[in-house]
Amino acid sequence: MKKIMIVDDSSTSRMFVKRCLQTVLSGQDETEYLEAGNGKEALAKMKATPVDLALIDLNMPVMDGATLLRWMKSSPKLTLIPVVVITSVDSPANRDELLKLGASHVLSKPVAPAKLMPVIHEILDIQADDGFGF
Amino acid sequence: MNVEQILDEAVRETIETMAFMEVIRGDRITPYDEHLVRLRVEILVNAPFPGEIRLVLPKSLAMVFAQNMYSLDEQEVTEAIIADVLGEIVNIIAGRLIANILPGDQTFQLGLPQIGPDAFLETEAASLAIEFDAESTPFWVILFGDGFQSTH
Q1: At what angle do helices A11-24 and A113-129 cross, to 10 degrees?
Q2: Least confident of A88-97, A117-126, B56-65, B99-108
Q3: Residue A67 contacts B where some CB pair is shorter than 8 Å
Q4: CA–CA dist B138, B151 (Å, integer)
Q5: 39-78 of B, contacting A, C-beta below 8 A
Q6: Fold (CATH) for A2-129
Q7: Pair B56, B39: CB distance under 8 Å
Q8: CATH of domain B3-149
Q9: Is the ipTM of this complex over 0.85?
Q10: Is B109 on the interface with A (CB under 8 A)?
């Protein structure tokens, strides 16, 4: 079973992303969705439960998305998890910074299945080729 | 495009995508109605210039946004859901607006949305207020800050 972490302080945004993922992944094997309202909560959950993909927002209280990304990429346990940043703070300069921090993709809100699908399919294909279990 | 056109696009795309409602730009400001219960949600622009983006709307419209986005009946919509929905809407509008008025090599930062009641549609000299209409209900977006004026 695939496990996907969705990190956003907005429950509305988490709901939207999850709906999009469910659309994109319909027909695939069952997927479990984990949710967190900030980076600190997400870190704790991902250390307790290995996930295959994380979709994170940037602007969050307690621990923002950029800090979460830094923590993940410096953790041997979490560094290989692909991270897709889904944010309202999207500009070419912001995007470059996030990719340098280790994000695999950056998408701007509002996210829609058509935007998400090629990204998810690319990540899944990469992982399938490497035998990550999808 | 000027800032009004960029804002128009940001507002329409955000609400049409998230709340499934058609939005059109108003050509005037509807006179203030003291009996209308309104909500106000605002988000600060922290960088590269100080500013604020404020969304003011009738509570009834906020309720419809929440119902549409969550597929809920009116009685199922809580204040917390409304607050979260409006926060996310203004967050996305702000992001799309700022991203499209700044040069591509410039980063920007937004604050966290703050929501509360709106007793009066406040405007200041250095503000830009635009009325929109979502299925015959007006709502307003007000931009504060010189950074918006310079691109107006």
Answers
A1: 60
A2: A117-126
A3: no
A4: 25
A5: 69-70
A6: Rossmann fold (3.40.50)
A7: yes
A8: 3.40.1550.10
A9: no
A10: yes
